[in-house]
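quick q for whoever's on today - can somebody do inverse folding on this one?? i tried earlier but teh output was garbage lol. tokens:
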């Protein structure tokens, strides 16, 4: 930020009182701002993940008001009760002008179908930043192709293989490049005493209990390596479930082989995901398939217990499978910001709110919401960013909550403290390479009434059958029987509904 701009902002921080309601799950409230009555007020409802919300004297929020030329009035709701609060607010009809939507919940979909939110597709092209939104992510966040919120961008590629390189060196293997290499690594980690204690007490990969399909579990990621679809594939122009394909069954057979040979933990079906890192940190297992952020957690935990454990953990994005290198993507977003019609009644007011949201994507606004104020929350020396918030949570809380309505469209432009570790660099490399080989879910945007009513029941049929097949309780015929049960329990009806929606959205 230029020096004269910083001086201008600092002067205005002193002159601009803040209008923020800090309401932990209570009703929406609006504060007046007589000293700044020339400004309009934007009312926002957002989840609070931090122990403290940005206070009424937060320099970051004051600076954001100055930059956007709006008074910003936030209703903070604890994240744990946010969806419940959303349903209450929707029922009351007393809505803000912008509201964070955490996911496409049944409550949100019901409100969309009732006409409670503005459909934004016709307007986005008119705004500098919003017009540059990623088309894939816009589609993923849409409801049957219609846009009812501005997505909050997240890394599209996070999936990777996390591996102990000290164990690789011990067993004399390189980083795996193919599925066969991957299997050989897991086998060596069990059989070749990688911890060097002379005991048969290690195994290859840790897998936790993971409820849900297509949401990034190790099984989801691994089946993509085998060339299986991401939830749904396309055959003859129609959607088909992943679990009906040959590639899925090939992956499932591989999982069973890992289980039968003791290359994964026998208790995977009940293992608490909160303890997922422990076997790797404690030297019982050598591989986890998850996200790059977990790799950093494991490396830090290992260094805490052993200062010499520097750069032991490394990652790769994927391996060569039958259909080449493929990777599992996220949906590219984490919730969205929607505009309720009861809070924004006219098209003129809608355009004002969209102008505000567009400004929040400017570099200056992204820095304020994600990093805070220069000279207070961080410093720049020769262009290098350094946080001033270490060991000072109060400074962090001044702006941390504001990131809940930061969208980062078309890209993230706030500061990230550069790290020189190979792990940090490899995470960046995986993101870049993965975007070219990601396998997307073609039904991501489709919202079926059948799934809303029966989705949990249908998913559980396949989840149970997958686990039963891996541990040997059923064979391939038993799995096919489970698929027929899925079809007869509403799956056939679901596919019919989804394909109708898919055909309509394709047009």
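ok took a stab at it. sequence:
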């Amino acid at each position: 930020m230029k020096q004269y701009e910083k001086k201008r902002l600092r002067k205005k921080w002193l002159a601009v009182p803040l209008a923020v309601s800090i309401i932990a799950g209570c009703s929406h409230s609006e504060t007046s701002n007589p000293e700044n009555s020339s400004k309009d007020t934007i009312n926002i409802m957002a989840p609070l993940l931090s122990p403290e919300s940005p206070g009424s004297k937060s320099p970051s929020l004051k600076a954001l008001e100055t930059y956007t030329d709006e008074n910003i009035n936030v209703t903070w709701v604890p994240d744990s009760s946010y969806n419940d609060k959303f349903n209450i607010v929707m029922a009351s009809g007393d809505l803000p002008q912008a509201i964070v939507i955490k996911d496409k919940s049944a409550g949100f979909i019901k409100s969309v179908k009732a006409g409670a939110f503005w459909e934004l597709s016709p307007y986005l092209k008119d705004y500098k930043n919003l017009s540059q939104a990623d088309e894939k992510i816009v589609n993923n966040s849409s409801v049957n192709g219609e846009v009812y919120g501005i997505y909050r961008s997240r890394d599209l590629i996070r999936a990777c293989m996390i591996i102990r390189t000290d164990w690789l060196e011990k067993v004399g293997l390189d980083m795996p490049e193919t599925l066969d290499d991957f299997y050989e690594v897991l086998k060596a980690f069990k059989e070749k005493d990688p911890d060097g204690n002379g005991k048969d007490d290690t195994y290859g990969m840790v897998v936790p209990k993971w409820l849900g399909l297509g949401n990034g579990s190790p099984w989801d990621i691994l089946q993509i390596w085998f060339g299986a679809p991401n939830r749904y594939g396309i055959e003859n122009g129609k959607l088909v479930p992943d679990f009906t394909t040959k590639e899925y069954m090939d992956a499932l057979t591989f999982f069973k082989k890992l289980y039968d040979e003791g290359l994964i933990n026998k208790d995977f079906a009940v293992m608490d995901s909160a303890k997922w890192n422990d076997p790797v940190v404690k030297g019982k297992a050598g591989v986890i398939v998850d996200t790059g952020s977990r790799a950093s957690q494991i490396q830090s935990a290992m260094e805490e217990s052993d200062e010499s454990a520097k750069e032991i953990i490394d990652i790769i994005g994927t391996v060569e499978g039958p259909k080449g290198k493929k990777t599992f993507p996220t949906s590219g977003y984490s919730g969205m910001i929607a505009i309720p019609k009861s809070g924004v009644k006219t098209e003129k007011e809608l355009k004002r709110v969209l102008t505000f949201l567009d400004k929040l994507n400017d570099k200056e606004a992204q820095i304020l919401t994600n990093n805070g104020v220069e000279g207070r929350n961080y410093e720049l020396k020769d262009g290098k960013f350094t946080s001033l918030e270490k060991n000072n949570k109060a400074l962090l809380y001044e702006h941390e909550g504001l990131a809940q309505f930061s969208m980062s469209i078309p890209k993230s432009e706030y500061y990230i403290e550069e790290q020189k570790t190979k792990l940090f660099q490899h995470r960046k490399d995986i993101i870049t390479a993965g975007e070219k080989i990601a396998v997307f879910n073609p039904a991501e945007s489709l919202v079926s009434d059948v799934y809303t009513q029966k989705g949990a029941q249908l998913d559980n049929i396949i989840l149970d059958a997958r686990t039963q097949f891996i541990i040997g309780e059923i064979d391939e015929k038993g799995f096919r029987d489970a698929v027929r049960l899925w079809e007869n329990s509403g799956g056939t009806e679901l596919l019919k509904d989804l394909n109708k929606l898919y055909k309509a959205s394709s047009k």
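fwiw The longest strand covers residues 41-48. also Confidence is low (pLDDT under 50) at residues 1-37. so keep that in mind when u check it
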